[in-house]
Amino acid sequence: MEFLQDPSSTFRFSILAIVQIFVVGFCGFVAAKREILSQEGLKVLSRLIVEISLPALIFSRLLLQFKFNLFPHWWFFPLFSFFLTFLGLGIGYLFLKLSPPFAQKREFLSLIGFQNAGYLPLALATTLFPPHKADQMFIYIFLFLLGFNALLWSFGVHLLSPFKKKMRMVNLFTPPLLATLSALLLIFLNLRRFFPSLLLKPLQIVGECTVPLGLMVIGGSLAFVSPQARIKKGILMNLILAKLIALPLLVFLLIICLKPEPLIGFLMLIESGVPSATSLSIIAKHYSADCDFVNQSIFFTHLLSLFTLPLFLTLFGWWVRI
Fold first, then answer.
1. Mean pLDDT computed over every residue of the chain
2. pLDDT, tens digit, for every residue of 184-221?
3. Among the listed residues 108, 79, 76, 75, the one whose alpha carbon sits nearest the alpha carbon of residue 94
4. Quick one: which of 154, 180, 200, 248 is 20 to 30 A from 109 by CA?
5. How many domains is the chain built from?
6. What is the DSSP string of 151-200?
7. Per-residue b/e over 231-266, b at no fewer than 16 CB within 10 Å?
């Protein structure tokens, strides 16, 4: 891992990786500003990613690269996704107690508890690691998403719904989750050799579109943050402190205590340090939550993560070299 060689190279590689990611996202931002992409177009792209390209990426990569004997602790990743979400919600609750009363409590907690768990970590793995290490990181991220997606589209929807929408089991089985479970089942039953390569190769090609399309959707979504909406500076500052500082700092201390292998530690830190999930904007709009507050928070957590992520990656590099 070249970018962990010394503190200056870690910081430099991290900055370069995140800038490259944001350049791709900026293309989506420009496309939205120039009305090449409308809000409806972004919804269509989001559905394309969530229902087709991301499941194709997950299914093909797992089928080609995952073996239970090579990943004996695979169960750790979905469990860690649950732990991280509820740790974030706990930190959010503490920051709520320190803030003056305000109306957006559900939104505040959701924005801290749920992060951009897929597109940004996948893009960072692609940018920072050589191919063989990036492939291993992809497996870790997919296994993490196994738990994260189940929580986001059940408990996350329930949390953001002002009418406390009843959690339904059917909401758990999103296409990415089904793709993960299907691939793991084929591997567990030793049936992957019967899956035709004639189908697997097209799935790989479709899956390769996921990261750039996902980043463009993020950038395009940020273009629709309402400039007229009044920014709640104090609340937003507490949210940023909780999401981008307190949460990754606690996880970094946990990494020091647990001493996981570097790639697992990297996943733990990245998943705790990335900004709020853009999917929350879609959920907020659908369930009549405060969309302006959610969109502003997503925008500013993404913007400020340009500075906070490299700092925590530098700390991680320092820990790896000890």
1. 86
2. 999 999 998 889 989 999 999 999 998 888 888 888 88
3. 108
4. 180
5. 1
6. HIIIIIHHHH-TT-PPP-GGGG--HHHHHHHHHHHHHHTT-GGGS-HHHH
7. ebeebbebbbebbbbbbbebbbebbeeeebeebbbb
DSSP string, 92-126: HHHHHHHSPP-S-HHHHHHHHH-B--SHHHHHHHH
Q: What is the mean pLDDT of residues 287-315?
A: 85
- How wide is the angle at C-alpha 80 spanned by C-alphas 129 and 297, nearest 5°? 80
pLDDT of 254 over the 90 cut: yes
Per-residue confidence band for 233, with pLDDT thresholds at 50, 70 and 90: confident
From 47, 41, 49, select the one nearest 206 (Cα to Cα).
49
Read off the pLDDT band of 9 (50, 70, 90). Answer: low
On the question of pLDDT at 165 being above 90, the answer is no
Token readout for 13 is 């590689």
Closest Cα partner for 60 from 248, 167, 187? 187
Q: Among residues 14, 31, 86, 17, which one has the least CA distance to residue 217?
A: 31
The C-alpha atoms of residue 10 and residue 18 are separated, in whole angstroms, by 12
- Angle 20-21-24 from CA coordinates, rounded to 5°: 90
Largest CA distance in the chain: 60
Share in percent of the chain as helix, strand, coil (round to 5): 80, 0, 20
pLDDT, one tens digit per residue, over 114-158 is: 999 988 898 888 888 888 888 999 999 999 998 898 888 788 888
Structural domain containing residue 266: 2-321
DSSP character string of 223-249: TTS-SSSPP-HHHHHHHHIIIIIIHHH
Q: Using an 8 Å Cβ cutoff, are 287 and 160 in contact?
A: yes
Question: Based on the number of CB atoms within 10 Å of its own CB, is 227 exposed (0-12), middle (13-18) or buried (19 or more)?
Answer: exposed
Tokens encoding 136: 């291993």
